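Retro notes (design track)

What went well: tokenization of the new backbones is finally stable.
What didn't: we kept losing track of which sequence belonged to which structure.
Fix going forward: every design gets posted as structure first, then sequence, in one message. First example under the new rule, 532 residues:
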């Protein structure tokens, strides 16, 4: 009796079966990565939703069961569809019509499920929200849906195709790896060098005594007990009239507000005595160092105590001017200006620089108010004018608005895989699949290209800042992202870049130059008055 060929074929060894399955899974993962990158390059809704997972302020919402149900049902329908095609291939028009009726039955079943279950309907709306923006019933956070589609449904679809077309022989697996290898090599190829290797230490070198001054400054750091527990709040009635802490606004409203709230302001000033003593201790240093480490979770100086002591120092100086005590008013304001200038000159972070600028701007406006309402000696004016000179200002200071974030990136991002960087960048050490992202880091993140891309953008923005061309900043950033998002490579590098340039840089530039103009105008006025 003749034995069929299929029956006489020896069964494959179990170890080879396991090896084949592992090789097939590795191939599916690689192919899914390539398909996902292609989708992220070509389909903006997917790209935007996926990037939302790594946004600086992203917080994963509670799992919506409707989304999971809808995606599960969709996956089952895909598998069922491929199963039908696997065992039932249409060979005539009749078979094609029957297949169409079967597909229609699946569609009607899905619609019936949505009509019967609001949970399924909500999940379907969440799925559609990836493609139809601002539609009725759009889910508030499609990012997780995009993640499940890219990480779940795409590999499932690839497996279904392999199973349907019977592409699981060793020759197909080997051919798949040969086709995939050059794509993975292309994804991993990075720029040869960083063309502009500026670091934090190069931008703002340390100096003798920097540690001591920085330690005094950080007594009111956000994580230090003094800064963390600072909850000073003036009486609410202070905020209920015109002129609230606004020396640069309407002078009559500012004067009326000061006189109407004198008792509260003086009481608050006494309460702020420890903060004012700290401020004057800082002023005893010729320079105030900045040793902020280049990490996203680095401690920053708290703005609340600085804002409170600055506002009240300006209010007290203005009251002294209204009382005819111009010399005392300038003596009160002088430490505010001197410390803010020292903070700005040694700043390594944009946060510290803008705190210093904000403080300085309020002091400058108050100094103008004092000069308008009280007599100030030539010697006091000359000393105040001296405090306004030196330091980093003008076009050089404006350029640093963009140099500092770039130098921070070079110092922080070297020799770190993308999973760790995203964990730091989002201030969340449990970033989604951090270990897996680290494993795939060479394929998803090209560190030198990312640094060079940021460097090119920041170089252009530095030039705009130095020339006071704020209107060109936002278009340049938008054009940069259009260009980077069209790349197949460096997908998570682009996400990291998007997080570093989300600051409203045009507004920061305008604020900088507004204070710079006020400083120049006040100094010119002081010099002119002092030489009369």
């Amino acid at each position: 009796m003749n034995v069929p060929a299929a029956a006489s074929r020896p069964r494959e060894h179990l170890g080879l079966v396991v090896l084949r399955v592992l090789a097939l899974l590795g191939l599916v993962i690689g192919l899914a990565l390539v398909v996902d990158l292609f989708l992220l390059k070509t389909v903006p809704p997917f790209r935007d939703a996926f990037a939302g997972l790594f946004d600086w302020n992203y917080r994963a919402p509670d799992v919506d069961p409707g989304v999971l149900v809808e995606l599960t049902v969709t996956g089952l329908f895909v598998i069922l569809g491929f199963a039908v095609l696997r065992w039932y291939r249409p060979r005539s028009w009749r078979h094609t019509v029957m297949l169409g009726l079967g597909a229609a039955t699946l569609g009607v079943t899905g619609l019936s499920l949505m009509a019967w279950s609001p949970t399924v309907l909500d999940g379907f709306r969440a799925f559609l929200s990836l493609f139809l923006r601002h539609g009725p019933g759009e889910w508030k956070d499609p990012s997780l849906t995009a993640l499940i589609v890219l990480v779940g449904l795409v590999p499932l679809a690839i497996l279904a195709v392999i199973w349907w077309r019977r592409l699981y022989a060793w020759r197909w697996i080997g051919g798949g790896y040969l086709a995939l290898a050059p794509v993975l090599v292309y994804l991993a190829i990075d720029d040869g060098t960083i063309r502009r290797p500026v670091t934090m230490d190069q931008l703002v070198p340390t100096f003798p005594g920097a540690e001591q001054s920085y330690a005094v400054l950080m007594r009111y750091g956000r994580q230090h007990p003094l800064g963390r527990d600072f909850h000073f709040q003036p009486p609410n009635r202070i905020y209920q009239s015109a002129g609230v802490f606004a020396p640069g606004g309407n002078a009559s409203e500012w004067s009326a507000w000061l006189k109407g709230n004198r008792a509260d302001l003086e009481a608050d000033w006494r309460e702020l005595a420890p903060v004012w003593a700290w401020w004057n201790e800082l002023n005893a240093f010729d320079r105030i160092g900045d040793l902020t480490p280049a990490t996203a979770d680095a401690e920053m100086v708290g703005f609340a105590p600085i804002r409170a002591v600055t506002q009240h120092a300006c209010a007290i100086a203005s009251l002294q001017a209204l009382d005819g005590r111009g010399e005392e008013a300038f003596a009160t304001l002088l430490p505010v200006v001197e410390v803010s200038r020292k903070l700005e000159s040694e700043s390594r972070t944009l946060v510290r620089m803008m705190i210093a600028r904000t403080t300085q701007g309020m002091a400058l406006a108050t100094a103008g108010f004092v000069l308008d309402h009280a007599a100030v000696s030539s010697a006091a004016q000359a000393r105040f004018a001296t405090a306004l000179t030196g330091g980093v200002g003008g076009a050089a200071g404006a350029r640093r608005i963009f140099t500092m974030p770039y130098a921070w990136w070079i110092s922080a991002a070297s020799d770190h895989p993308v999973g760790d960087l995203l964990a730091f960048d989002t201030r969340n050490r449990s970033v989604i699949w951090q270990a897996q992202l680290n494993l795939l880091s060479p394929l998803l993140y090209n560190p030198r290209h990312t640094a060079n891309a940021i460097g090119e953008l920041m170089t252009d923005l530095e030039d705009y800042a130095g020339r006071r061309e704020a209107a060109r900043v936002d278009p340049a950033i938008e054009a940069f992202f259009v260009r980077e998002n069209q790349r197949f490579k460096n997908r998570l590098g682009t996400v990291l870049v998007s997080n570093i340039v989300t600051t409203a840089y045009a507004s920061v530039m305008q604020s900088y130059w507004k204070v710079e103009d006020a400083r120049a105008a006040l100094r010119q006025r002081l010099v002119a008055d002092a030489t009369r």
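Added context from the reviewer: The chain is about 70% helix and 0% strand.
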